Amino acid sequence: MFKLYKLMANKFKCLSFLTISLTLLQVVSFLVLPILLGQLTRLIGENAYLIQNNLSTNRPITIEILRINFLCQSHQSALMHLGGYFALFLIIGTISAMCASLLASYVSQAGSKQIRSCLWKHLGELSQKDIEAFSNAKILTRFTIDISRIQTGLMSFLRMLIIGPFNLVLGLVFALLTNLQLSMIFLVVIPLLTLTMVISGVIWNPIQKKEQEMYDKINIESRENILGAKVIKSYNMEQIQWNKFQNVNKNWGTTTSKSWIIFTITFNFIEIISNIAIAFIVFFVGKQTSKENIADFSKSIGNGVTFMNYVMTVTFGVVASSFTTFNIFKANVSSKRIFEIMNKKPDIAKIKSDKLIVNGEIEFSHVSFKYYESAKSNVLEDISFTLKPGKVLGIIGPTGSGKSTIAKLLNLDFKTQDGLVTIDGHNIQEIDTDSLRKNISHVYQNPCLLSGTIKSNLLLAKPNATDEEIELAAKNGCAFEYINKFKEKFEHVVEQKGANLSGGQKQRLSIAQGLIKRPKILILDDSTSALDARTEAMVRNNIKEEFKYEKISLVIIAQKISAIIDADEILVLNQGKIIDRGNHEELISRDGLYKEIAYSQLGGNNE
Question: Which residues form a coiled coil (predicted)?
Answer without folding.
Answer: none
